[in-house]
Amino acid sequence: MRQLKKILSLLTLTLFSLFAVFPIYVVLSTSFRGDNAFQSTSLEFWTKTSSISNYFSLFTSTDFLTWMRNSLWVSAAVTLIGVGFAIGAGYSLSRFPIRGKKTGLLILMTTQMFPCTMLLLPFYIVLSHLQLINSFWGLLIIYSATSLPFCIWQLKGFFDTIPKELEEAARLDGCSHFQVLYKVILPVSLPALAITSLFNFMTAWTEYAIAAVVLQDPQLYTLSIGLKTFQSSLATQWGLYAAAAIIVSVPVVILFMSLSKFLVSGLTMGSVKG
Amino acid sequence: MSFVEFKNIQKSFGDQKILQKIDLEISKGEFLVLVGPSGCGKSTLLRILAGLETPTEGDILVNGKSVLSKEPKDRDLAMVFQNYALYPHLNVFENLAFGLRLRQVSESEIQARVKETAEILQIQNLLERKPKALSGGQRQRVALGRALVRKTSILLFDEPLSNLDANLRNQMRYEIKRLHQLTKSTIIYVTHDQVEATTLGDRIAVLNKGHIEQVDSAHNIYEKPANTFVASFIGLPEMNFLPGDLVGRPGASVGIRPENISISAEPRSGALEAQFDVCEYLGANYLIYAQLQGQAIRLLSPHPPKTATGGKFFVSIPLEKSIFFDKVSGHLL
Question: Which residues of chain A have a CB within 8 Å of the CB of B134?
Answer without folding.
Answer: 270
